[in-house]
Amino acid sequence: MNRTTALPRLAWAGIAFVGTLLPISSFADDQDVRDYRSHIMKTMGEQFAALNQISKGKVPAADVATQAEVLRITAGVAKVAFTPKVLGGEAKPEVWDKWDDFSKRLDELVAAATDVSKAAKQGGVAAVTPKLSSLSCKGCHDVYRVQKK
Questions:
Q1: For the chain, how big is the Rg over CA atoms in Å?
Q2: Which of 40, 60, 61, 65 could form a disulfide with 81 if both were Cys (CB 3.0 to 4.6 A apart)?
Q3: What percentage of residues in the chain have a pLDDT greater than 70?
Q4: CB–CB of 143/94 below 8 Å?
Q5: Are 81 and 32 in contact (CB under 8 A)?
Q6: Mean pLDDT of the chain
Q7: Across the chain, where does the E strand assignment appear?
């Protein structure tokens, strides 16, 4: 490799490294952060809905483990999505005023989604169905989500 090709590669490597050090809010305006949160939460809702359809036998069960794993991954990303204190969207200010409680609830959701994912991999639909009730979103939504009109 000569010096003319090495410099651009080093420059890109440096930019990539610096990019990993900057928080999400450094790259996004407030609306972008709210939109990102919304996408994450909608994804969790869609995955939960897909798992419910599978557990009720309404759609093929062949991908139950994949659906459960996507739910687990998305639940894990939710806390990161709420880390920037950006008010608005469907999130009430209580999310950040009571961060310890909100964060704990997200951790519990991640643990429940991890359990569902593990059950799906080991026992399929029969193992997942009784665990779906552990994924209730209502308790958190009642406290931390603006009610839709």
A1: 19
A2: 40
A3: 81
A4: yes
A5: no
A6: 86
A7: none
Tokens 């759609």, residue? Answer: 59
34, 82 in Cβ contact below 8 A? no
Residues whose CB is less than 8 angstroms from the CB of residue 36 and which lie 6 or more positions away in sequence, other chains included = 24, 28, 81
**Average pLDDT of 54-75?**
96
Tokens 């994924």 locate to 135
Q: Which amino acid is at 12?
A: W
Q: How confident is the model at residue 17 (pLDDT cuts 50, 70, 90)?
A: very low
Whether residue 116 contacts residue 71, with contact meaning beta carbons closer than 8 Å, is answered with: yes
Amino acid occupying residue 69: E
Distance CA 102, CA 12 (A): 38
What are the contacts of 81-85 at 24+ separation with CB within 8 A?
Answer: 81/33, 81/36, 81/37, 81/40, 81/41, 82/37, 82/106, 83/23, 83/24, 84/23, 84/24, 84/25, 84/33
pLDDT category of residue 136 using cuts at 50, 70 and 90: confident
d(CA 132, CA 74): 16
